[in-house]
Amino acid sequence: MKLTQAQLAKYMDHTMLKPEATAEMIDKTVGEARKYNTASVCINPYWVKRVHEGLEGTDVNTCTVIGFPLGATSTASKVFETKQAIADGADEIDMVINIGELKGGNDQAVEDDIRAVAEATHAEGKLLKVIIENCLLTDEEKKRASRLTVKGGADFVKTSTGFSTSGAKAQDVKLMREAVGPDFKIKAAGGIHSLAEAYDMIEAGANRLGVSASVKILEEAAKQD
Asked: What is the pLDDT of residues 83-118, one digit of tens each?
């Protein structure tokens, strides 16, 4: 497959989630997103207000992470974090499911957790992506988590935090696509470092890519334009 640099940029959540990220690193990420016109900038909640202000006058969204990276905070905490992030200027919310409850077979708890955050997000007209952390799940659990994401009322199901044992795999994206059907959206994130890997994820069914190597990949794409 071949996309122009501009087309590929709109698949990308340009990401800076490092715990050691400084204000200077955040501003650099914002500048890159403005230059390449990515879909969003994805940062930890502390930086939402700064990023939102830095992206003013563009159509690049501000994206943040909730219950990150473990997903094992209370639903009430996730809802509070979500509301605060949106008040600070977030357009997109990427939450982590309760992985332990999924693995323990408590699907209702997982669905309820997702739904509570979805309701808080959609009440403000914003977008919710749900991280299921594939590297910790069996294939059956990946499919179940994907279906629970749909049932819980989210907008996307997302492969990974990028902070566990591995990131996105094309075979997992295909599995998730089978589970959610042709129309529900999928975000692949973690470990996407090259143009070839980005294309692999899109061809497998990803609608959005979470990438810290956005500049490198988009420069690769420019050479093909």
From this structure: 999 999 999 999 999 999 999 999 999 999 999 999
Q: Is 27 a catalytic residue?
A: no
Q: Respond yes or no: is residue 94 known to be catalytic.
A: yes
Q: How far apart are CA 150 and CA 146, in angstroms?
A: 7
Q: Considering 126, 129, 142, 187, which one is annotated as catalytic?
A: 187
Is 129 considered catalytic here? no
> Which one from 91, 94, 113, 200 is the annotated catalytic residue?
94
10-35: pLDDT as tens digits? 999 999 999 999 999 999 999 999 99
Element at 45 (helix H, strand E): none
Measured in degrees and rounded to the nearest 5, phi and psi for residue 166 equal -165, 170
**Catalytic pick among 13, 158, 169, 172:** 158
- pLDDT tens digits, one per residue of 113-142: 999 999 999 999 999 999 999 999 999 999
